[in-house]
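Bench notes, bay 3.
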Amino acid sequence: MKRKAAEAALAYVKPGMVLGLGTGSTARFFLEGVSRLVREGVDLKGVPTSFATADAAKELGIPLTSLEERPSVDLCVDGADEVDPKLDLIKGLGGALFREKIVAAASKRFIVIVDASKLVPRLGTKAPVPVEVHPFGWKAAAAALEGLGATVELRRRDSETVRTDNGNNLLDARFGPIKAPSKLATRIAAIPGVVGHGLFLGMADAVLVASDEGVRTLRPTRTS
């Protein structure tokens, strides 16, 4: 399913584009498709959203650039951990939320690729909200998130604290189904020490959803 969604996203890629290259297993399939286009002679450059994506892109022969060199990105393609009916997202279980959000915001179009299991009636139904926090005083930030109603865990792997590409900690904040994502996003961002959070609101231009029936395109119903 992930490969199906990623292959469908290649239809949005045009010669000469600068592409935002997402992070994670679904985005990896998109990278493979971009690599194929590059080998066929299509002029493309990528802005990676993580060290892991940069390494993968280099291995696949995708030319890379940066936001310093190309501050305007033509198209960003990335996965998501949850998608609600408004096409608001939770991202960041792969740990790259800070750079993913910057690249998506710098892009003229942001296309999200998922399988149908990522669709939820409300954000927070299945996934926690990842919150990137500076290591200094992370416990105070965790307490503040708990004050907003979350159950909070410091992300660890093999008993070691997970560090982002920016050298920060990750807190996974479980709120359950979120009634007012915009209000919650504002409150999380206001906590001292918070560097970024995984609520991507009003950002997706389309979501490509793969299922056994094929790939369907969802577009936002948001009003300005």
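Next record in the batch:
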Amino acid sequence: METILFYFSPTHTGQKTARAIARGLGFETKEVDVTLPQQRKAFMAAVPAIPENAVVLLESPVYGGHLNGVARQMLSQLKGNGQPAILLTLYGNRHYDEANKELYDLARTAGFRPVACGSFIGEHSFSDKIATGRPNDKDLAEAEAFGKSIGAKLAGSWSELTAEQIPFNARNDNPSAKAAALPKEAIGPHVDEEKCIGCGSCVQACPMGNLVLNTEKGKAENTHTACLRCRACARVCPVQGIDFVGEEWQKVVQRCFMGFGSPARENVTVL
């Protein structure tokens, strides 16, 4: 048997957790990363066929209580034929809300049989003060143990999960959702041209191709086209020359911190 990981992971929380689950499974592993624009272009040009003996892991970050739209678009291209699927969502300490149910429906529509579902915590993309440093060592150990349990289930006569078993929360009253209603220019990455050294790290890390390198200035530039507010750009900048600093953005971050900055939530797994 082999494991195929499909993930959209701008800040690598989903990637780390998916890899830990795969370690626990113990099968030969193949990764299909659809985070960056060039990776998605290659994926769409040749959507991989799923071997009959594969177990697939489908991962998406949770944005505003739902699957990320880009991840949903990519994963919906897959075609299964009854292979077992592991459903994995990553959320920033607020709630997974409807994301697991959406991923379950997507997997079944694609022809997979969901065998396990996990919602794990990752550091919130808006602020490193919410779920700081997660997934941490404890989270990754839990993910690996989860993988071992899935492997044991698959070794026997297993049954797929029912819709009623999928962790679900119909509420969607979260402070971070207010960010989506603000103008793109109001909350987007701001390049500090005095600090920016034109290395292009942020340009390469942006999952939406929102950032470009202005060759005349030798500086990164925000095009205000399609920003997810994942802050992958800020996390990779070696000189702290780019971040989200607008007044409206700071209000959103403060609402998030007050609403769900603590206590630390636990990971949820279902077999």
